[in-house]
Specification:
Monomer. Its EC number is 3.2.2.23, 4.2.99.18. Belongs to the FPG family. Pfam families: Fapy_DNA_glyco (PF01149), H2TH (PF06831), zf-FPG_IleRS (PF06827). A hairpin with a 3-residue loop joins strand 4 and strand 5. The two termini are 27 Å apart. Helix 1 runs parallel beside helix 7 and helix 4 packs across helix 7. The strands form three sheets. A five-stranded mixed beta sheet has the order 2-9-5-4-3, with helices on one face. The protein is globular. The protein is built from seven helices and eleven strands. With 275 residues, the chain is α+β, with helices and mostly antiparallel strands. The protein folds into two domains: 129 residues, N-terminal domain of MutM-like DNA repair proteins, CATH 3.20.190; 124 residues, Helicase, Ruva Protein, domain 3 (Orthogonal Bundle). Helix content is 27%, strand content 23%. The structure holds a DNA duplex (16 and 16 nucleotides).
Length: 275
DNA sequence: AGGTACTCCTGAAGGC
DNA sequence: TGCCTTCAGGAGTACC
């Protein structure tokens, strides 16, 4: 599942290939993925537009266009974005196809079709509530230890689902949430309010570290994720707990446990991560 | 308001 | 082998 490191890897792959390119044609093979505006308007506005910049906010990719428009893409579970040169066959699951002036294409592929695309003026991005209410990003000046600890202190619920709450900190999904808790040595079901100052500090550092490691490795290809060139990431080789059910903990050798927390598969070491 | 449950979706995997 | 059920999970929504 694409989380911040995967989306950032895709952004870096695609940036040089798509900036300054003009979209000549838009094929909507599955129009219902377009959430705003209508599919017809989406197609009409995009056609002939030049891409000026490729940005990212949390797990959203932002294609800035001329005339102050922005094409927003959220990959959700199985979305993929590929740049494919003219003449090369497209992905079996391509749902939206953007063709550039020399027939090169940008393809939005998605097996489970849960992804979402939007097109609007930059001044109207507030319409996307996920963007509007998004919390600070790891590895930025806005994401401070004081902010993080303050927010955690006020919450009674389990820490794991809080790490998935994009209004608290943006970009973490199930993989990096489990990895952050493992690195910090915190049980996923521990109440956030009961974390000690030392634990808050360790978790803050861990969130930044696992996100930085994920980006450095070009993302985690656990199942569906591929980068903008269709390549797998490397970070699945360095995971501490995610997807390692029954395999030995890399610190103490205890078999990794898998439980369900707030409806999400959750991996942790029962010896290193105490409640 | 914070917390929980349900919904969307389809291929892979597991049970019998 | 084949049919059926379950699972994967981001995020919007409904509801208490």
């Amino acid at each position: 599942m694409p989380e911040l490191p995967e989306v950032e890897t895709i952004r870096r792959n695609l940036a040089d290939k798509v900036t300054e390119r003009v979209i000549k044609e838009v094929d909507l093979l599955l129009p219902r993925l377009i959430k705003w505006p209508s599919p017809g308007e989406f197609q009409a506005i995009l056609t002939g537009k030049r891409i000026t910049k490729l940005g990212r906010r949390g797990k959203y990719l932002l294609f800035y266009l001329e005339d102050d428009f922005v094409l927003v893409v959220h990959l959700r579970m199985t979305g993929r974005l590929y740049f494919i040169q003219a003449g090369v066959e497209r992905d079996k699951y391509t749902r939206i196809l953007f063709t550039f002036d020399n027939r090169d294409t940008l393809q939005y592929a998605d097996t489970r079709t849960l992804g979402t695309l939007y097109l609007m003026k930059e001044s109207e991005l507030w319409r996307i509530s996920g963007l509007q209410h998004m919390g600070p990003e790891p590895l930025t000046a806005e994401f401070t230890e004081a902010y993080f600890s303050d927010r955690l202190k006020k919450r009674q619920g389990k820490i794991k689902p809080l790490l998935l709450d994009q209004t608290l900190v943006s970009g973490l999904g199930n993989i990096y949430a489990d990895e952050s808790l493992a690195l910090a040595g915190i049980h996923p079901e521990k109440s956030a309010a009961q974390l000690t100052g030392k634990e808050c500090k360790a978790l803050y550092a861990a969130v930044n570290q696992v996100i930085a490691e994920g980006i450095a490795d070009g993302g985690t290809s656990f199942r569906d994720y591929r980068d903008g060139n269709g390549q797998r990431g490397e970070h699945q080789k360095h995971l501490r707990v995610y997807g390692r059910h029954n395999e030995p903990c890399c610190v103490c050798g205890t078999p990794i446990s898998k439980i369900v927390v707030a409806g999400r598969g959750t991996h942790y070491c029962s010896r290193c991560q105490i409640k």
